Amino acid sequence: MVQIDKMSGKPLFEQVILGVKQDILRGILNPGDKILSVREMAAQLMINPNTISKAYKVLEEEDVIVTVRGKGTFVKQLDTETRNDKQINKLKQQFIELVIEASYLNIKEEELIQWIEESSHYFRRS
């Protein structure tokens, strides 16, 4: 389930977004599953409902979830065919910044590749 770290420097709404995506990749949430309402999620995580609402809005914009008026919010089918070039470019820029920071800390390319491989195994689907 989605967890947040209130001591983290990462904004809470971004932690919620990442948490929902992690739950989907782990198989905790599947396409068609109903997710907690804004109020329920806010109560569970003990954070402001506006924060959850902001996270859900971003997740909807990214086609991760869909809200059906009067029925709830559901996980959308993961589209493995379509790529969101805008999101990919944003991610690529973040990755470049990460590589710069890693290089500055004298972390070698081989170690970065190992980190990527370890991380991808964590979410690999059977």
Please characterize this protein's 3D structure:
The protein has helices at 12-26, 38-45, 49-61, 85-104, 109-123; strands spanning 34-35, 65-68, 72-75. The chain contains 5 helices and 3 strands, in the order H-E-H-H-E-E-H-H. It has 2 domains: 12-75, Arc Repressor Mutant, subunit A (Orthogonal Bundle); 85-123. The two termini are 20 Å apart. By secondary structure, it is mainly alpha-helical. The radius of gyration is 16 Å and the shape is globular. The chain has a 3-stranded antiparallel sheet with strand order 1-3-2. Helix 2 (38-45) crosses helix 3. Strand 2 (65-68) and strand 3 (72-75) form a beta hairpin. The relative contact order is 0.11.
Structural features:
Arc Repressor Mutant, subunit A; mainly alpha; WH_DNA-bd_sf; 2 domains; 126 residues; DNA-binding transcription factor activity; globular; transcription; GntR family transcriptional regulator
Q: What's this, in brief?
A:
By secondary structure, the protein is mainly alpha-helical. It has five helices and three strands, in the order H-E-H-H-E-E-H-H.
Number of helices: 5
CATH architecture classification of the largest domain: Orthogonal Bundle
Order of helices and strands: HEHHEEHH
Unreliable runs, pLDDT <50, ≥5 residues? Answer: none
**Biggest beta sheet attributes:** 3 strands, antiparallel
Shape: globular
CATH homologous superfamily identity of the largest domain: Winged helix-like DNA-binding domain superfamily/Winged helix DNA-binding domain
> Order of strands across the widest beta sheet?
1-3-2
Count of DSSP strands: 3
What fraction strand?
Answer: 5-15%
CATH class of the largest domain: Mainly Alpha
Q: Please estimate the helix content.
A: 55-70%
Pfam families: GntR
Domain HTH gntR-type: 10-78
Keywords: DNA-binding, Transcription, Transcription regulation
GO molecular function: DNA binding; DNA-binding transcription factor activity
